[in-house]
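Input sequence (335 aa), recorded before submission:
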Amino acid sequence: YLKVLRIDLFTIENAEFEHSPSALGADNIDFSVANLLIDSASSHDHKFYSESLELEIHHQSFKLADSVHQLSFDRFLLSTADSVLTFENLVLKPISQFHGSFDNLDDKIVYDITIPKLKLKGVDYFSAYRNNHLEMEELSLIDSHIFLEEQTHTVVNQPVIKGNSLLKQLINIFDEIKIGKMRFINTNLNLKTNEDYNQNYQHVQSERADIVLYNFVLDSNNYDFDHGKKYFDDVDIIVKDYSSYLPDSIHTINFELLQLSSFDSSLIFNNFNISNNGKGSPSDIFLSIDLPMISLKGLNYLDILIDQKLLIKEMRLEKPTVNFVKKQRMIEQKD
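Predicted structure, token format:
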């Protein structure tokens, strides 16, 4: 056999492959290796026995393991030279006909996600290859639309027997995922959780949100999101032009801007408003609130996310206007 193999530049263009029996395959593949060196007599320091690997794939579509969703993208680029991985026009959506694939699942989640650009920076490819740990400095989702609808039947603090969680499918590939900074930039969010159904909560819906999670960690112990676990160290959130009905379906909450930061334990609302549509039974009380600004200080986001407790050291309301009106009184006044 060869003791030394050296290739300055090795390239494969427009390749395709197919794996049996999984039927997984891809085409439109370009692959290159720069300065490949395999020498049995020396301790070569380059990871993957080369200076860089580059993999580029165009226009692919795959069915996920849950047989419910399909993943597609226009372009995928992986480069070990600058530790970057990029997807362009990444789409995750239900297959139009999934023929009862949900029937055998205890926990069901429907995803409909469109990400024009998904970028991973500072990826440790060697750790992913050698240790099965995916670690990166930053993950950015730009101008994405994220729809999630969850319907679960699992008892709290008991493992899911059968489910199609996307996070669970990731953990089936990597034992651990660590992200120094996870950025959702100009994101359209539409999230409907199982708790929303059970408690008649209105789901989270925002057309303009910027969210940054710091030191995010996902492993086999916490791939199912619940209120009793910590997934990241700090968070910054900016939500603009938000509007949603409250659980009574009579009142609407609106605000122009929300800013939350765990670094200074603050939460600020600009132009906060609660209005009503005038509908309801005669015993209903209608509430109208106008607040140019609400400022909360001394918040601990872990109290909110994990313990579901809102503990505030200081709360300031700027020029509030509050009106309570009972519908019966409104009817009497009209008569």
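Checked by second reader. The helical segments are 125-130, 166-171, 194-199, 301-305, 327-334.
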